[in-house]
Design a protein that fits this description.
The radius of gyration is 29 Å and the shape is elongated. Helices cover 65% and strands 0% of the residues. The protein contains six helices and no strands. The protein starts with a helix and ends in a 48-residue tail after the last helix. By secondary structure, the chain is mainly α.
């Protein structure tokens, strides 16, 4: 069915359709990676306990907690990518809506040229010329709406994408650094046969590492260079509000599709690591598709 939808896509929106479809596969891969990482974390904890070595059991258990949180970050990243993908769909839908306008303009132009060549005295030529003027005016509005929504939503979509990438990377680094702190608590001094290793003395310190990691995640905030948008002056007809009246007179219409701006949201995610550590067609009016509200960049 997905392939059939791809075949049925208007020519103008086919390329972006493929990108959106490919991104869906990528999102699925991140979701799978999240589940696998959480599963591996649980397996590591179980293995450590089975070794009978208190030190290995405690450290592997807490490393498992950090690995599990790394898995959760993959899932959060996948959710943010879905928000970015939703914004791209607004461009795709607009492209699909503009295609009929282009096709109608080309069709009328072809019919007019053919008629002028075959029957230059045909009275229908005047009618077609008038229709072509209307088609060109309507297409002019549609093309302006398309370029406006394309630029605005391209910036919005990849603002979400790159902000999510930075969040994922910074939180992964944060968790990995705390993981290395745990490794330093494990004494790997060799023993000779018959020697007994001393009892694990760093249980409190290991637990403090998780406390620190949890606090760092809770206090994390994005520090991003702003990506400002000049599209705030765009009216509900996807054109500059001051130019709306002009566009209306050009197209001879007063009704356009509406759109709604989308605001990106940035914030941190609170987690509780310790809880898991204890065992875990422009015809008459515009036919350009209006943008749908999106949830934006959510943590």
């Amino acid at each position: 069915m997905a392939s059939l939808r791809g075949i049925q896509q208007p020519e103008l929106s086919k390329k972006l359709f493929k990108i959106i479809k490919s991104e869906n596969h990528a999102i699925g891969a991140y979701e799978t990676a999240s589940r696998e990482r959480i599963s591996i974390a649980s397996q590591l904890s179980d293995w450590g306990e089975a070794t009978g070595d208190d030190s290995v059991s405690d450290i592997s258990d807490k490393i498992g907690v950090l690995l599990s949180e790394l898995g959760e970050q993959e899932d959060t990243f996948a959710q943010n990518l879905e928000d970015y993908r939703t914004v791209l769909k607004q461009i795709r839908n607009t492209e699909g809506s503009v295609q009929p306008s282009r096709d109608h303009k080309a069709k009328v132009s072809d019919e007019l040229l053919k008629l002028k060549y075959k029957e230059p005295q045909n009275t229908k030529i005047v009618q077609l010329e008038q229709e072509l003027v209307r088609a060109e005016a309507q297409n002019l509005v549609a093309e302006a709406q398309l370029t406006n929504i394309t630029r605005q939503k391209l910036k919005e979509a990849y603002d979400i994408h790159f902000a999510a990438t930075i969040e994922r990377a910074e939180k992964q680094i944060l968790l990995a650094r705390h993981g290395r702190r745990l490794l330093n608590l494990l004494d790997d001094t060799p023993v000779v046969p018959g020697d007994t290793r001393p009892a694990f003395e760093h249980a409190h310190q290991a637990r403090q590492v998780l406390n620190d990691a949890e606090e760092d995640l809770r206090e994390w905030t994005p520090n991003l260079e702003p990506v400002p948008s000049q599209a705030t002056g765009m009216g509900v007809n996807l054109m500059p509000s001051q130019a709306a009246a002009t566009a209306t007179s050009v197209s001879g219409q007063e009704d356009y599709s509406s759109g709604s701006p989308v605001a990106s949201k940035h914030g941190g995610v609170e987690t509780n690591l310790l809880e898991s550590s204890d065992r875990r067609d422009i015809s008459g009016s515009s036919t350009v598709a209006q943008p749908e509200p999106t949830s934006g960049y959510q943590q």
